[in-house]
Amino acid sequence: MNTDTIVHPKLQHYGLVTGNLDAMIEWYRTVLGMTVNHRSARPSGAAGGPPFTGLAFVSNDEVDHRIVFFEMPNGRAGAERRRKGRLQHVAFKCESFDDLLGTYVRLKKSGIEPLWAADHGVGTAIYYEDPDGNIVEINVNNYGTDWTATEHIRTAPPTLAHVDFDKMLAARKAGASPWELHERAMSGDFVAANPFQAGDRF
Hints:
By secondary structure, the protein is an alpha+beta fold. Helix content is 30%, strand content 23%. It is built from six helices and nine strands; from the N terminus they run E-H-E-E-E-H-E-H-E-E-E-H-E-H-H. A five-stranded mixed beta sheet has the order 5-8-7-6-9. A hairpin with a 5-residue loop joins strand 7 and strand 8 (135-141). The N and C termini lie far apart (40 Å).
């Protein structure tokens, strides 16, 4: 039994408290392809019982759940939650740049617009806000391999280029490779007309 060395457990799931269970389930179904594997109601205010009135386990792969939603209709409002500390964001990885671009197009057609998008050097990411105000990042590794991306983080200075995904999409359709998209983002070719101001959302 190893009792001294970090074994690097992988992210398995996370839990979110919500007062909007139906809306949250539908949003995560639309954005990430989450399926409800279990949903149940709990008696409200039962002595010795949990503080939530319902829960739902959802997943978009073979794991039984990647997110568990705890329904608490009287949960704290978003602004108060931000003041008291909260989950900053959760990220999901696409396998290819085209998967990320395609996700952007699909969600835009569904009326779901990103808060902002950026090339971070190591990867390109789009940030969305769920119905409860939690930030969900969907990204792709610019290098294609985790090892090379790790070397980038270890050796390169931090970089950030705000990007307009419509401009990036047009360049891809015109024949630019994923690496060219990254290089052009860093050179300012895809700068957003109104760069996102983080404010208190991050």
